[in-house]
Each structure stands twice: as C-alpha cells, then as structure tokens.
Amino acid sequence: GMAVEILSAGEIARMRRAGACAAETLRAVGARLRVGVSTADIDRWVRADTAARGARPSQLGYRGFPAAVCTSRNAVVCHGIPSEAERLADGDIVNVDVTSELDGFHGDTSMTFVIGEASAEARHVVDVARRCRDAGVAEVRDGARLGDIGAAIAALAAQEGCGVVEAFGGHGIGRRMHMEPHVAHTGVRGAGLRLKAGMAITIEPMVTLGRPDIRQLDDGWTIVTADGRWTAQFEHTVLVTKGGCEVLTA
Ligand code: MF3
Ligand code: CO
Ligand code: CO
C-alpha cells in the first residue's frame, strides 16, 4: 500500500515515551562501553535496561533475529549479532542500535561509539555519519520531500569523501518497528513522498570510508562493507511537525 500513517495526539504522546525509552537505554549502555566488553555483554545490558523500563526489545525475534540489539563493529555496516567471542578493543568503533516497544509503540535509535584511541580516519567516518544523520533530520518538516533528506545526506558524505550505503534505509515507525515509507539516504531534492505533520520516520545513514557496496555474511544477518573498510551509523526517530520535526530519541 501507499498509505503512511498520521499519528493522533494520543499516539504521539506514546511515541514520545517509546522514543525516550530507547534513547535512555542507548545512553545507559553506551556509558558502560570500554576495552574488554563483549558484544554479548551489550546484549545482556540492553535486555535488562529495557525490561527495567517496562519495555520489550523490538528486535528480539524480529524475522528470527537472535538478539535484543544490533552491535556492528568496524567493517560491519549493520545487523551485527552480539557474541561472547567478540570483545571491544582499543581503537574499535561500534554501533549499538536499540529499538524498544513501550505501550504498543516503537522507538529506534543508534550511535557509533569510539573505544579508546581510534585512528583519525575511524574518527572521521564516525563524525561524518553523525553529521549526515543530523543533516537529514534538519530537512524534515511538513511539506518537505523524502528526496530532500537523501540529497542532503549524500551531498555531505560526498563532500567529506565518504560513501553512503544504498541497500538499507530508514523507515516509518509506530505500532510496528518497520512501516512505510522507506527513507532512502540518497536522493534528488524535490522528489519523492511529501512529508506530513504527524508522520514518524527514522533517519539512519550508514556511511563508509570506501565504496558503499555491501555483502551479507553466511549467518544471514551481518552486513559488512565489500571492501572491508570501516563504516559508521547514527539513527534518530523523528516526528514530522508543521515547522520542522521533533526528535523523539534525543
Ligand atoms: N533497528 C534496526 C533499524 O534501524 C532494525 C534491525 S532489524 C534486526 O531498522 F532484526 F536486525 F534487528
Ligand atoms: Co531503524
Ligand atoms: Co535501529
């Protein structure tokens, strides 16, 4: 179908709570990251913190995903599966993607964390990914087009010598984690769906140091860069408003 949901005032209030819940879990878990932590530790912390907030990890069991959180380190673009064997080392970068369902609504947010002393190029791709996410968010308002978001993200990444992964995008969000529309992170200004106040979407660009081409590992989930170079991602859930947007996962 083509319909993108417009949330009621009551639904917006519940989306604010779900977004804050996911953001608080991400902040709490991020504060515990250091050399030696395993990505399975991150999964345990996400499960416990989410439960303590009366919420459920949306990703657990989603299309068979085996964990509560995606942990995507270095050359992993997204959908990394937490593992006891994978420990954070000095200089690593790791994206932690938290999605929480609270009172029937979902909030979805991620950040890429730098562990200890990272290389200049690792810090660069993390910085560019954050700025690309924020450049996309800055385009959102009633009447803007989805293409405005993608065009802003792609222009900034290109200016900084980085790639933007095209195989995955953001999405509508509400009573389900993934809803319409698909939110591409490249595009043409003035093209695509017109945003309306009351829509909720995610913006979550995956930015690469090298080519944006990807491949999937044999586990059926983990997405890595085809060239093995490092990649970073940041994600917010936002509500479209008349004059701009409200970041629900701030
Ligand atoms: N949170 C991810 C997103 O931003 C969803 C990952 S789906 C999973 O859309 F199954 F891999 F968890
Ligand atoms: Co998302
Ligand atoms: Co996410």
**Uncertain regions spanning at least 5 consecutive residues:** none
| H/E topology pattern | HHEEEEEHHEEEEEEEEEE
Tell me the span between the first and last alpha carbons: 30 Å
Q: Report mean pLDDT, rounded to a whole number.
A: 98
How many strand elements? 15
* Class from secondary-structure proportions: alpha+beta
Notes on the structure:
The protein is an alpha+beta fold. The chain is built from 4 helices and 15 strands. It has helices at residues 9-30, 39-52, 120-138, 146-159, and strands spanning 56-57, 70-73, 76-78, 93-102, 105-114, 163-164, 170-172, 179-183, 200-203, 206-208, 214-216, 223-225, 231-233, 236-240, 245-247. Strands 1, 2, 4 and 5 form a 4-stranded antiparallel β-sheet that branches. A 3-stranded antiparallel β-sheet has the order 3-12-11, with no helix packed on it. The protein has a 3-stranded antiparallel β-sheet with strand order 6-10-13, with helices on one face. Strand 11 (214-216) and strand 12 (223-225) form a beta hairpin. The model has no long low-confidence stretch (mean pLDDT 98). One cobalt (II) ion (CO) binds at residues 108, 170-171, 202, 204, 235.
